[in-house]
Amino acid sequence: MDPRYSALAQRIGLGASERIAGLFALLADPRDADIMLAMPGQPAEIAAKAGLAEEEVAKRIQDLFVKGVAFPSAKSDPPTWRMCRDLIQFHDASLLWPQAPLEFLDLWRDFMNHEWFGVAKAMTKLKPKPFTRIIPVGVTIQPRTQVLAFENVQEIIQSAKRISVTNCTCRLSMRLCERPLEACLQVNKAADYNIARGTGRELTQEEALDLMRECEKAGLIHVTMNRPEADNFICNCCPCCCQTMPVLLKGGIHVLDPSRFVAVVDEEACSGCGLCHERCYFGAIGFSDGEGSVSRVEADKCMGCGLCMVTCPEDALQLREVREPAFVPGA
User: Fold this and answer.
1) Is the separation of the CB atoms in 262 and 298 below 8 Å?
2) Are residues 149 and 224 in contact, defined by beta-carbon separation less than 8 angstroms?
């Protein structure tokens, strides 16, 4: 393989991965590779470094933008362009490339099956906290202090200036379930980016709220960046395809923080039907005293997603705040 593709893989910390180099090779010809390796810079600077005409570079950069590997900065005029900064950005952006061939999707699946667990484990050693965090479904919470704005799905959506939805990149490549595909929400700048690329469909606030409710019914968990703002995305994750869930559930690799809440059972209201047990991917709910008794939540296993509440016929479950606001980095 052309060494330029290994150099691109090295730029995102995976120079030893033939699969990542192969992904770059599928979306970039050698001239595109030269352009990305000459980044960051404005088109004239990149053209000089790559030894190409500025007009050709400008056109190719736009193609690379649509493919999800070139990103503009509005801090300069004309924009300064950089390539994807890390594996996560490369994955999430490039998989929405509208003309991506099946070979490209399959190679991403191959990487996730064979290399992602090891990469995720290494990432957890470099960061003091997971890079993503669960935010609870749109249900009632029993607060001790306050429910922060960035933990309230409805408030995030209602305060957003712009919202878009894209296909879930994980389900797009892994194809392990039939849960909703168009399910990843972007807010504000992230929405601007996906709409500009042609990979996002703009939503009204009410449409976005309806989407969240449908995702909750489908058993999808709301996940966002682990920081005190929601100016990026709300993923709706399944336990089988998504970046975070399988490595946590199967490998015990903590790339995902819980919310600040845990589920609690109103034993007087609980009928012991067991529906909440089936809804909990984390094995946190069981019977308190054998089959047919009321349900009980193991707090140390509960991730505070609230999915168990959505289908409880007796409304016998609630979320209770158990962690301080400072649990979220930077809050």
Assistant:
1) no
2) no
- The model's confidence at residue 152, banded by pLDDT at 50, 70 and 90, is confident
- Residue by residue, DSSP assigns 59-85 as HHHHHHHHHTSEEEETTSSSPEEEE--
CA–CA distance, 201 with 220 (Å, rounded to integer): 20
**Helix/strand/coil for 32:** helix
pLDDT higher than threshold 90 for residue 107: yes
E strand spans, 177-302: 182-187, 201-203, 221-225, 233-237, 256-257, 261-265, 285-287, 295-297
Which are the contacts of 198, defined by CB distance < 8 A and separation ≥ 6? Answer: 66, 98
What is the span of the domain harbouring residue 247?
A: 128-257
User: Can you say whether residue 51 is alpha, beta or left, with left for phi > 0 and alpha for psi between -120 and 50 degrees?
Assistant: left
Residue 206 tokens, joined: 């009410």
Grade residue 188 by pLDDT with cuts at 50, 70 and 90: very high
Q: What is the residue-averaged pLDDT of the chain?
A: 93
Give the span between the Cα atoms of 192 and 164, in whole angstroms. Answer: 8
Q: How far apart (Å, rounded) are the C-alpha atoms in residues 283 and 293?
A: 17
Whose tokens are 């709409």? That residue is: 195
Single-letter amino acid, residue 228: P
In terms of domains, do 271 and 309 share one?
Answer: yes
- Helix, strand, or coil (residue 134): strand
* Domain endpoint, select from 214, 233, 257: 257
Distance from C-alpha of 138 to C-alpha of 222, rounded to nearest angstrom: 10
Reported as a single tens digit per residue, the pLDDT across 205-238 is: 999 999 999 999 999 999 999 988 767 899 999 9
Beta carbons within 10 angstroms of residue 45's beta carbon: 16
Q: Identify the CATH number of the domain in which residue 29 sits.
A: 1.10.10.10
Domains: count for the chain: 3
pLDDT band (50, 70, 90) for residue 317: very high
Report residue 143's pLDDT band, with 50, 70 and 90 as the boundaries: low
Beta strand 163-167 with 201-203: parallel, antiparallel or unpaired? antiparallel
The 10s digit of each residue's pLDDT in 13-34 is 999 999 999 999 999 999 999 9
